[in-house]
Amino acid sequence: HEGMIWGGEEGSYEQDKELKAGADKVIGETEYDEERLDAVRKLPVTVVSNSAIFKQADIDRMFEEADPSPPQIIPSCLPSLYKLAKDTDLYVITQLPHAGHQNLSSYFDAHTVPSDESPHGVWETDKQEKAITKALEDAGVFAAGMNPHKVAFCETVDGRGYIARNIGEELTSLGRIALHVDDAPFSVDWFTNVCRNTTVVAIKNDENMGDFPDPKNAAPPFIVETLADYFEAKK
């Protein structure tokens, strides 16, 4: 059982113009694998940010700070992230450390505060969730074209795939996710076997060592170390 939150705030027009210009400049200077990008152009794409956009250590660090600052985005992923933001229907999912919520009800209880506006209370965003969203905003990912309301969070490995599958089935005209990026072997294995028409990109890191199970009745994931390894042209 998972909860998710969609974040994002309106930035100033001038700042957005500068960020968009910066993202467009990076895109213009990058040589991409056009065949792979064409396969997902204008289609829904989910990227689990753990290891793909943020180092896990930087995500964990936010929980050691009373007022966490936005984590640094992995620099090498930005050209691919900007391109996905501009040319696809991009969703970013981040798994945050488990806070002990055993079901959806306890998750919502922990994230709502009493209010006259609603008998159920109003949503209160975690400081860590705000920091993740701010990192994406400050880096120009929203200015490049990603909808800031398509940032999601979960607390468990299971939640990654469940959220991605539900996004595909419930929120897209395609009825599925075209491409899913993930670094958790369990999640990758589940997703490749359950969502067989989705291309899965598995991110190798020091913890998983690139050891991802071969699916029983589906195409294996593409195992890479960075988003750039998959979306940029080989040099």
Please describe what this structure looks like.
This protein has 235 residues and is α/β, with parallel strands linked by helices. The protein is built from 10 helices and 8 strands. The chain has a 6-stranded parallel sheet with strand order 5-2-1-6-7-8, with helices on both faces. Helix 1 packs across helix 4 (78-87) and helix 8 packs parallel to helix 9.
How is this structure best summarized?
By secondary structure, this protein is of the alpha/beta class. The chain has ten helices and eight strands. The strands form two sheets. It has a six-stranded parallel sheet with strand order 5-2-1-6-7-8, with helices on both faces.
Q: Tell me the number of strands.
A: 8
Radius of gyration: 17 Å
Give the neighbour order of strands across the main sheet. 5-2-1-6-7-8
Strand content: 15-25%
Low-confidence stretches: 1-11
Largest sheet: 6 strands, parallel
Global mean pLDDT: 89
Distance between the termini: 43 Å
Number of helices: 10
- Categorize the overall geometry: globular
The secondary-structure element order is: HHEHHEHEEHHEHEHEEH
Q: What is the structural class?
A: alpha/beta
What is the share of helical residues? Answer: 25-40%
Which terms would index this structure?
single chain; 235 residues; alpha/beta; 10 helices
Give me the secondary-structure topology:
Blueprint: H1 13-28, H2 34-38, E1 44-48, H3 56-61, H4 78-87, E2 89-95, H5 104-110, E3 112-115, E4 118-123, H6 127-138, H7 141-144, E5 151-154, H8 157-171, E6 179-182, H9 185-194, E7 199-203, E8 222-224, H10 227-231
Helix pairs in contact: 1-4, 8-9
